[in-house]
Amino acid sequence: MNISDFLLGAGDPTAPALTDAGHTHSYAQLRHAAGVLAAELAALGLPPGARVAVVGANSLFWVAGYLAVMKLNLVAVPITDKSTPEDVQRNVRLVECSAVLIDRRLSRRFAGALDGLAVLTDDALGSAREPHWPAASTDVNADAVLMFTSGTTNVPKAVRITHANIRANTESIITYLGLRPSDRVLVILPFYYCYGASLLHTHLRLGAHVVLCNSFVYPETAIDLLDTEQCTVFAGVPSSFQLLLRATTFTSRPLPSLRIIQQAGGKLPPVMIDELIAAQPSAEVFVMYGQTEATARLSYLPPHLLREKRGSVGRGIPGVELAVLDEEMRAVPPGLRGEIYAVGDNISPGYFRDPEGSAAKFTSHGLRTGDLAEVDQDGYIFIVDRRDDFIKSWGYRVSSQEVEAAVLRMEQLVSAAVVGVPDDEAGEAVTLFVTTRPGSDVATEDILAHCRRELAKHMVPRSVHIIDAMPLNANGKIAKTSLRKHDGSKVLSV
Predict the structure, then answer these.
(1) For a disulfide at 314, which of 301, 344, 367, 407, Cβ 3.0-4.6 Å?
(2) DSSP 54-89
(3) Where do transmembrane segments lie in this chain (predicted)?
(4) What distances in angstroms separate CA 440 from CA 92, 117, 239, 413, 444, one per listed residue?
(5) Which of these, 464, 485, 482, 476, lies nearest to 416 by C-alpha position?
(6) 204, 246 Cβ separation under 8 angstroms
């Protein structure tokens, strides 16, 4: 089955599908919009498998365009609207896009990057063409989407996601979260990010209601929407929850409709998981782990185990097998470290036209995640750090996540990020960046004193920088590559 038919199959025509900037669109209206854009795309005469970029913020146009592309057996290429024109040009050329769906307000900004492409803007939603929704067959193993990795440590790669991948991951997530057709999800994550896309896929599949919030720069706006729209589901990355828990009214404002909170996209320190549970006690908190190469999700920790398995990302989701293997490809015993490998129908077949990169990542033992972890006697996985984020200092391998978790036990802090900076003596110096609660007068010496109490000597940061805000990539993750290049220009106190 074509994945667009799969995703739109359950929605009642009169039921709300999408609320965008205060306007609610029914499933009938979403299907009509997708059909109109499919008609415009079909008029371009593109061959099956041709790549079509989708550029813009979350909106009716974005969702309808995304569904229309996949319905025509073309390949959707979501691209962040936060990119520079140079980055957009690089990405569309990398995957050889033939056309682009783009918000009209962005088309002038990116005009030079889109030379040679057929361009359709959101004006096409007003087309006089009859909606087009052909009954053509689809190879479920054909590419549906090329999803770019976040590029937190390397140049982004284009991950091939098939129709079958999306279906497998969507069904699995719906099952373990216990999502319902009556759910209303507040989406602050962009759909060009695999985590955000998974929220769209799962709720459309059920005929549920997707409420868009594109202004998380002001997180109180999201809390207002959770309240006024009576949202039942909310999802975020660590930076989202750090702001909500320590810089907003989220911890003191009752949200009785909220029943599911999803946390993924990086490790939220255990102390903040505890705060999240306490903040909204009527909601179940699901800690999850995933990668773009896995369509979205790989593991989850059931809410009732959050305290018993504190700090764990759980075990494989339905349909996924996870193993923590040593360098000899043997399962590690409890307490020893290895790398996480994953097998399942949601795993991508590889990177677009990158056989060397694909061979290194997609191995005979499964998807090589690059995450080092330990496993306990019950098979629950505890991630220690990204392989690339370990800091080699004075002959030790320092886990940045372990240092960050210790630092964030200081309630005056909102977020923390640790990176290694080249140092002639240590090899790499442990360097800490933090943001503080509004009005806090905490000093760097206070933070260092806390670190000396909480951490082994070799893990204590060499320097601490209090900055206005963490640099985030387009997916809301802390961009450690930017911190490694930090020149001190935005340091508030040192």
Answers:
(1) 301
(2) EESSSSHHHHHHHHHHHHTT-EEEEE-TTS-HHHHH
(3) none
(4) 44, 50, 19, 8, 12
(5) 464
(6) no
Q: For the segment 8-60, what is each residue's pLDDT rounded down to a tens digit?
A: 999 999 999 999 988 999 999 999 999 999 999 999 999 999 999 999 999 99
- Which of 176, 142, 180, 175 is CA-nearest to residue 161? 142
Q: Which helix (H) or strand (E) holds 281?
A: none
Query: pLDDT above 90 covers what percent of the chain?
Result: 83
Pairing between β-strand 413-423 and β-strand 427-436 as defined by DSSP bridges: antiparallel
Residue type, 318: P
Report the alpha-carbon distance of residue 68 to residue 40 in Å, rounded: 10
Tokens 């930076």 found at = 239
Above 60 in pLDDT, residue 152? no
Give the number of C-alpha atoms closer than 13 A to the C-alpha of residue 293, restricted to the C-beta side: 22
| Residue (of 303, 397, 292) closest to 347 by Cα position | 292
Task: In whole angstroms, give the CA distance from residue 20 to residue 215.
Answer: 12
For residue 344, the cross-strand partners are 320
Angstrom distances, CA of residue 103 to CA of 46, 53, 97, 150: 21, 12, 17, 22
Rg of the chain taking only CA atoms, in angstroms: 22
Q: What is the pLDDT of residue 357?
A: 94
Could you give the domains of the chain? 3-138 (3.40.50.980), 171-325+381-386 (3.40.50.12780), 390-493 (3.30.300.30)
Asked whether the CA dihedral 330, 336, 341, 344 is positive or negative, the reply is: positive
What distances in angstroms separate CA 136 from CA 4, 139, 234, one per listed residue?
12, 10, 36
Instruction: Please give the Cα distance from 185 to 200 (Å, whole number).
Output: 9
Query: What secondary structure does DSSP assign to 178-225, as a single string?
Result: T--TT-EEEE-S-TTSHHHHHHHHHHHHHT-EEEE---TTSHHHHHHH
The answer to whether 61 touches 122, Cβ cutoff 8 Å, is yes
Q: Residue 90, SS3?
A: helix
Tokens, residue 218: 């002001």
Nearest-angstrom CA–CA distance, 124 and 128: 9
Collapsing DSSP to helix, strand or coil, 412 comes out as coil
**Which SS3 state, helix, strand or coil, does residue 369 take?**
strand
pLDDT digits (tens, 9 = 90+) for 462-491: 999 999 999 988 778 888 888 888 754 443
Instruction: Compute the residue count for the chain.
Output: 494
Residue type at 292 in one-letter notation: T
Distance CA 171, CA 138 (A): 19
